[in-house]
Specification:
Elements: H1 2-15, H2 17-20, E1 26-32, E2 35-40, E3 43-48, E4 57-62, E5 66-71, E6 74-79, E7 83-84, E8 95-99, E9 107-112, E10 115-121, E11 128-131, H3 132-138, E12 146-152, E13 155-169, E14 172-182, E15 190-192, H4 194-197, E16 200-205, E17 208-213
Parallel strand pairs: 10-15, 11-14
Antiparallel strand pairs: 1-2, 1-7, 2-3, 4-5, 5-6, 8-17, 9-10, 9-13, 12-13, 13-14, 16-17
Length: 215
């Protein structure tokens, strides 16, 4: 009887790999450009972007803030000292729903350095855009940005090309987001442009714009 039970369990494992598969314990211990130091089942591995460890963990990408790994076709985002294991439950994808406002435009409140600001969603803008007064309120260090010229409704204007350390829209937070500060009063409302929008998925459903974080 015991032999029959053992044979049945072995067959169940062969037929149901998912039930017997155990996710390795993975923690992130270091970030170095396009490489990351991972501890996988107690063994330290230095992985370069696109490489796979002997345990089957692939480093998809990494930056100064986090690493994206893939295990058995599933992707996970890890911050420093965070870990996943067989008890890990994947977090639902972060998303923001924005109802259509007046004149068919979409408006949403975002946060920069803890300060709230109203954005106009503008797919025609190459980057997030602020005027100089908004930049001062938000504490953006625009003076050290790259000097550029931009085309506004009033003609060519001086501007600064800078990088925001962190930008939060609803439940979506992105790091190192390019933005442009116009040394003038335009635009009157901050623009949520493609330096943010290109990093999320956008769909429109019955007058509601849905932004979903890609990873």
């Amino acid at each position: 009887m015991r032999q029959l039970l053992g044979a049945f369990l072995s067959l169940a494992c062969l037929l149901g790999v998912q039930a017997c598969w155990s996710m390795p314990d993975v923690s992130l211990h270091g970030l170095f450009g396009q490489s990351a130091v991972l501890v996988i089942d107690g063994k330290q591995r230095l992985l370069k972007q696109g490489k796979t460890s002997p345990e089957g963990v692939t480093l998809i990408s990494s930056d100064r803030q986090e690493a994206i790994i893939e295990v058995d076709g599933q992707r996970f985002t890890l911050g420093l000292s965070q870990h996943i294991s067989s008890s890990f439950e994947a977090v639902k994808m972060a998303e923001v729903r924005i109802p259509r406002g007046h004149n068919g435009h979409y408006f949403v409140t975002g946060f920069v350095s803890g300060h709230a600001i109203e954005f106009l969603v503008d797919t025609g803008a190459s980057a997030v855009v602020f005027n100089i007064n908004q930049a001062k309120v938000l504490g953006i260090d625009y003076r050290n940005g790259k000097s550029i010229k931009i085309n506004t409704a009033s003609g060519m204007a001086d501007a600064r090309d800078v990088v925001l350390g962190k930008l939060t829209i609803g439940g979506i937070t992105l790091y190192n987001v390019r933005c442009i500060v116009n040394i003038g009063s335009h635009p009157t409302m901050a623009l949520l442009g493609n330096s943010f929008l290109s990093k999320v998925q956008m769909t429109e459903e019955e007058g509601v714009l849905l932004l979903t974080k890609k990873f």
